Amino acid sequence: MHKLMGFSGLAVVSVLLAGLAVPRFAVAEELVELEIKLPKAMFSGTPRNAKSTHLDPTTGQSRKPFRVPAGLTNVVAGKTVTASDDDPIVGELEMLTDGDKEGGDGSFTEFGPGLQWVQVDLGDVYELFAVLVWHFHSEAVIYHDVVVQLSDDPDFVAGVTTIYNNDVDNSAGLGVGKDWEWIETHEGRLMPAKGVAARYIRLYSNGSTSNDMNHYIEIEAYGRPAE
After folding, report:
1. Over 60: is that where the pLDDT of 7 sits?
2. Could you give the domains of the chain?
3. pLDDT tens, 160-184?
4. Within 10 A of 89 (CB to CB), how many other CB atoms are there?
5. What global pTM score does this model have?
6. DSSP string of 166-181, one letter each residue
7. Residue 221 — left, alpha, or beta (φ > 0 → left; ψ -120 to 50 → alpha)?
């Protein structure tokens, strides 16, 4: 089912079944290219100092167009953010949904070392088709153990759907992931959400190739109100 939306022209919507967001097919609907406003690029080329055993093989290439149902909006904009580290070393929690994606000083929030998470409360249940995150991108950095989960449970105990996991050794304790690590750039990272219905988005990280701290610039999620 994961591949069907990409080549069939059918969009995926979701229903709640036994507490889980389970995709199902709706009527065929038009898919359009998702328009993402990007910040200024801070460097170019493929850096050599950020290394990974499972680096995305498309590193250095521009992201391909991503198609979604028409009429989606960024449902994260201005929404409430909480975190495992509720007293950031640099910046404020609300900066993660304020629309500022630039890579310079004053645009990022720094959290403590080790495994940390940030969470956005959308305020209602939405069908989500893409989640994007910008970590610190003014230099070549790879963030570790990036896991992105969706749920209706603010504690992420029940009804959790994982849409991205690049923790290949389960060091975060959230299961072994098969997704790629990547070098941060101004494009951010897009995680397909395939129409999963959820109210909360939680993103984990566990330091980077630069240091043990965790940095976020912006989070976006494109969706529509769940029926």
Report:
1. no
2. 4-225 (2.60.120.260)
3. 999 999 999 999 999 999 999 999 9
4. 13
5. 0.86
6. --TT-TTSS----PPB
7. beta
